Amino acid sequence: MPRTHNIAAWLGLSLAIMAALTCQTACAPETVPKGRVVFEHDSAVRDETSPGLNFKMLNFEWRYLAPTEQIQVIGFAQNMTPDSVQGCRLIASGYDQFNSPLGTAEVFLTPTYIPPGQKGRFEMFFQRGEWVKAIRLRYRFEARF
């Protein structure tokens, strides 16, 4: 067999193996957590190990976006510091009703400049979660500038 056929066969075999491995990880059905329900209602708690800026999370709501298989979280936070803050970043980890992690998101509040006592809006996304019935956020706020 000519040498060019060997290379073509080798490349074809390599591509087939890569496709099979990719499908095993990407095409596998999503594992849905099971177990005892820990959280029945949505909640948000400040990460006391590194509390960050004194911003208070006022409220949030979420919804599952089927086309992108994401959970969208939208909410508001209030500047409780005596100073104006520019570039306030929210870092939040999400957990489902079984206390299984949904991931961590880092987003900036809008508007960028938030005076004392004023509110900022945030929007974040977590990957996957069609089974989610309740979300718990563990969060902290940090100054970017």
Helical fraction equals: 10-25%
Order of helices and strands: HEEEEEEEEE
Strand neighbour order, sheet with most strands: 1-9-5-6
Taking the sheet with the most strands, its summary is: 4 strands, mixed
* Count of helix runs: 1
- Gyration radius over CA: 22 Å
What's the number of extended β-strand segments?
9
> Which class do the helix and strand fractions yield?
alpha+beta
End-to-end Cα distance: 66 Å
Basic shape:
elongated
Residue-averaged pLDDT: 84
Query: Regions with pLDDT < 50 over 5+ consecutive residues?
Result: 20-29
Beta fraction: 35-45%
Task: Describe the fold and architecture.
The protein is an alpha+beta fold. The chain is built from one helix and nine strands. The protein has one helix at 3-26; strands at residues 43-46, 55-65, 70-79, 85-86, 88-95, 101-108, 113-114, 119-127, 136-143. The strands form three sheets. The chain has a four-stranded mixed β-sheet with strand order 1-9-5-6, with no helix packed on it. A three-stranded antiparallel β-sheet has the order 2-3-8, with no helix packed on it. It is elongated, with a radius of gyration of 22 Å. The termini are far apart.
Descriptive keywords:
145 residues; alpha+beta; four-stranded mixed beta sheet; three-stranded antiparallel beta sheet; 9 strands; 43% strand
Briefly say what this structure is.
By secondary structure, this protein is α+β, with helices and mostly antiparallel strands. It is built from 1 helix and 9 strands.
